[in-house]
Amino acid sequence: MSGGDVLELISVLIIFVVVLAATYYVTKWIGKSGVVPSKTQNIRVIETFRIAPNKYIQIVQLGSKYYSIGVTKENITFLAPLEEEQLDLTEEGIERPPVKFQDVLKQFGGFNQKHKKEK
Predict the structure, then answer these.
(1) I need a labelling partner for 67 at 20 to 30 A (CA). Which of 25, 34, 81, 92 fits?
(2) Average pLDDT, the chain
């Protein structure tokens, strides 16, 4: 390896570290800036159903009231108020355990080994 190759490798590593640091700080800034909507206690989207590309029907909860709305790329249309008795809210309280990335990688790793054995 010549001196030029070593300098090129070091410069690429420095650029990589700078890009990672910039990504980290920009992500933190976006999270704190409010660009991404934060969780609220009074407004929730209960369910979304896609009826066509870029067209959805949503059930939203505003305070203790429920409403259905139509959402498109250009506008939002009020459809009807809903009573809680009309809705099936049983899945609302179900918490799903978080999926670990390592478990997903193990699944794909096992798939690749099985796939190689079949060939």
Answers:
(1) 34
(2) 82
